[in-house]
Predict the structure.
Amino acid sequence: MKLPVKYGIVSVLAICLTTAGSGCSPNKVQQQSVTGSQLKTFSKGGVGGVNTLSSVESARLPISIYDGIPYVTGNDLAQALQLHSKWEADRNIYQLGDFDAAYELKIGSDDVRVDEGTIRLAQPPILRNSMVYVPVSALSPLFASYTNFVVTDKEVKLDLSSGNPSQPINGPEDASTGGDADFMDDPNDPFKGEEPTADHVEQTVASFAHNSSGAAAPNSGVSELTHSAIPAAKLKNVDVNQLIAKAKSYMGVKYLFGAPPYPESSRFDCSTFTRYIYGRYGITLGRTARAQAAEGTSVSRKQLRKGDLLFFYVPGRFRSNKTVGHVAIYMGNNRIVHSSPEPENGVQITNINKPYWKETFLEAKRFVY
């Protein structure tokens, strides 16, 4: 859609989150500045970020015109969809995603890397006044899996989602009633064994020490399982108990969105963690959580085995659709080990017998069998 140039070129844009009849507050201006390797957010007279008051019914992204082409800022888009973002100055790439960098937009290039593939855009993203701009024509091709966009001549509108979880991520444990949403272990799992008591399933990253070799530190409370405790059956020549012990040995490694490979960054995001751990056992996984969800063998949440990968969506106020945004390794007994910015920051063990995890669960895939 061609928009008239009269709407002008602006270097500071706002996300206007309004109900009918109200306008943008001058104190809610968000400015995105590309400095070094990060994109920083500033605000006038307050803390930056998307206004999520209960009265908000829609997000409105102002449109800016460059050379007759309508754009929104990457910062506005990321905030409205509640996506992480990062500017890679050395590669001239803007990364977007939930808990991993599912999208890589290269300035001046029509080709956008999405998971394992590439999408060709009608116009490329641009950099103006130290800000990343995404063409409006790219919104639906790239982000329709999150929400529906309504484009007018001055703004892009995103409607409020009605499908968010009933409890926060760190909410109370749920009673297991055998209902459809409950997670259950497969009684025939050949690697099923003794598990810690319920008092120990919520382990915070602060209680673990991690050394540079990747092995469990002496005071970490993590011990490598020996072959004497492992059943004779092997799944794809992988000892799942040892795989999980290896994953646990990275407890405390901090989360970093769009983390480069661990040997060079010493950090993980959700999919680089699973990719790294499974790669240590000869299993090649896709680059992102969504790519990994497209692989493997589907299994029911009622027949989970240790080592299965569990996939979840990440809720947002202005997301009308549900797409894979997070991946974790199932440990059995309603526990996952994963790299995440929440509820703690970093590689952690989380009890998923909670409404948040039951409601955001999308699917489980098996790779070791």
In short: The first strand starts at residue 13 and ends at 14. The chain is about 15% helix and 30% strand. Residues 198-366 form a domain with the endopeptidase fold (from Nostoc punctiforme) fold (CATH 3.90.1720.10). The chain has two domains: 5-159, 198-366.
